[in-house]
Design brief:
Strand order of the largest sheet of chain A: 1-5-4-3-2
Shape of chain A: globular
Structural class of chain A: alpha/beta
CATH architecture of chain A: 3-Layer(aba) Sandwich
Number of strands of chain C: 6
Oligomer: heterotrimer
CATH superfamily of chain A: HprK N-terminal domain-like
Number of strands of chain A: 5
Radius of gyration of chain A: 12 Å
CATH superfamily of chain C: HprK N-terminal domain-like
CATH topology of chain A: Udp-n-acetylmuramoylalanyl-d-glutamate--2,6- Diaminopimelate Ligase, Chain: A, domain 1
Order of helices and strands of chain A: HEEHEHEHEH
Number of helices of chain C: 5
Distance between the termini of chain A: 9 Å
Distance between the termini of chain C: 22 Å
Number of helices of chain A: 5
Structural class of chain C: alpha/beta
Largest sheet of chain C: 6 strands, mixed
Order of helices and strands of chain C: HEEHEHEHEHE
Largest interface: A-C, 23 and 24 residues
Helix content of chain A: 40-55%
CATH architecture of chain C: 3-Layer(aba) Sandwich
Strand order of the largest sheet of chain C: 1-5-4-3-2-6
Helix content of chain C: 25-40%
């Protein structure tokens, strides 16, 4: 499913628009950066409550098109700046991790 | 009833042992479970702070009839700006602490949320003293 | 609803405690996080924890937060010290190779509700 459709279908605020045509088939929910570094796949959406600069850096390194900050997370200024520079979408949801994952999973897998 | 614990900095494998002991003691005294939870969550966060930031520290817990008092003293880097450290999301934790599942800047706010009284003073380069009271 | 079905659905391995004796009625809700301070905020107890954090602190946190069922994801393996503390605290542990994301999706489809 295209990132733009996910944004349309779920209650998401876009803080940095990028990669809207990326085809998203899965996501990785983690607040442990080493797990993301080690295990997240390119083209996955990254769901996290971490909001610091390393998040943008790792997303870009791993070719993750978009990061979703849960619980209405506010990215640190340098995270947002870095995400803009590296062309990583920054999205925010007011949902907690479980519910956002659940809704995204159902949305993507209903389509498949 | 009084308890005294020595806390070792950076040793995450035993972090939480003090809080666990206090939890058992409170259960034995038939303290209201909701109060127990507030006490042990505040104490656990304080204990984790010592392990995550300090070289070493002590925790003294006084269980009295009408209140539980916790004195958490550590010898460590201290907190430069206590007010700022109380802000949600503020953290100076190292990457290794973050990979242990802590250090997201929620610890002190969590203590405050659960405590009836929470006083904290810190001297940079020396350490931090916290005093937490929860009324029974 | 049976715990057995949840276990099958997320291809989990019960590694500590008698998970099958738990009633899903007692686990109406789920909460997912790798950050323990986040878990320590939970005010409701009939909750299962879905996490990728696999260390002693995961168990200690569950003890303080009164969580009785932890689903450890991402193929991580619990160690003996975790088992020991979990047993003392009457906490059941499931391991699964699924990601946190996938476990959340499957549990939700099965009717486990979000806490917040």
């Amino acid at each position: 499913m295209k990132l733009s459709e996910i944004i349309k279908n779920l209650d998401i605020v876009v803080l940095n628009a990028a990669n809207e045509d990326a085809d998203i088939t899965s996501a990785y929910a983690s607040d442990l950066l080493s797990d993301v570094m080690g295990n997240a796949q390119a083209e996955e959406l990254w769901i996290t409550m971490q909001t610091h600069k390393n998040v943008a850096a790792i997303a870009s390194l791993k070719d993750i098109p978009a990061v979703v900050l849960i619980n209405n997370g506010k990215p640190d200024e340098d995270m947002l700046a870095h995400a803009k520079l590296e062309n990583v979408a920054v999205l925010v949801t007011n949902l907690a991790c479980y519910e956002f994952c659940a809704k995204l999973y159902n949305l993507i897998n209903c389509e498949l | 009833m009084e308890f005294l614990f020595e806390i070792e900095g950076a040793n995450f494998s035993v972090a939480g042992n003090a809080s666990s002991t206090i939890k058992r003691a409170l259960k034995q005294r038939d303290v209201d479970p909701a109060k127990i939870k507030r006490i042990v969550v505040a104490l656990f966060e304080a204990e984790i702070n010592v392990v995550a930031h300090a070289d070493h520290g002590t925790i003294r817990v006084l269980i009295e009839d009408h209140q539980v008092q916790m004195f958490v003293k550590d010898f460590g880097p201290g907190i430069e700006d206590v007010k700022e450290a109380m802000r949600e999301g503020y953290s100076t934790a190292s990457n290794s602490v973050r990979e242990m599942g802590f250090g997201a800047g929620m610890g002190l706010p969590n203590i405050k949320r659960n405590a009836d009284v929470f006083e904290i003073e810190s001297i940079k380069g020396l350490g931090t003293n916290a005093h937490i009271i929860i009324y029974l | 609803m049976l715990m057995n079905e949840i276990i099958k659905r997320i291809e989990a391995r019960p590694v500590c405690g008698d998970v099958c004796s738990l009633r899903t009625d007692d686990f109406e809700f789920a909460f997912a996080s790798d950050l323990m301070s986040d878990v320590l905020r939970l005010t409701y107890e009939k909750t299962m924890l879905v996490t990728g954090l696999c260390n002693v602190q995961t168990i200690r946190t569950a003890e303080m937060a009164e969580i009785k069922l932890i689903i450890i994801c991402r193929g991580k393996k619990c160690d003996d010290q975790m088992f020991k503390i979990a047993k003392e605290c009457d906490i059941c542990l499931l391991e699964t190779n699924y990601s946190v994301y996938r476990v959340c999706g499957e549990l939700y489809s099965y009717g486990i509700k979000p806490l917040y």
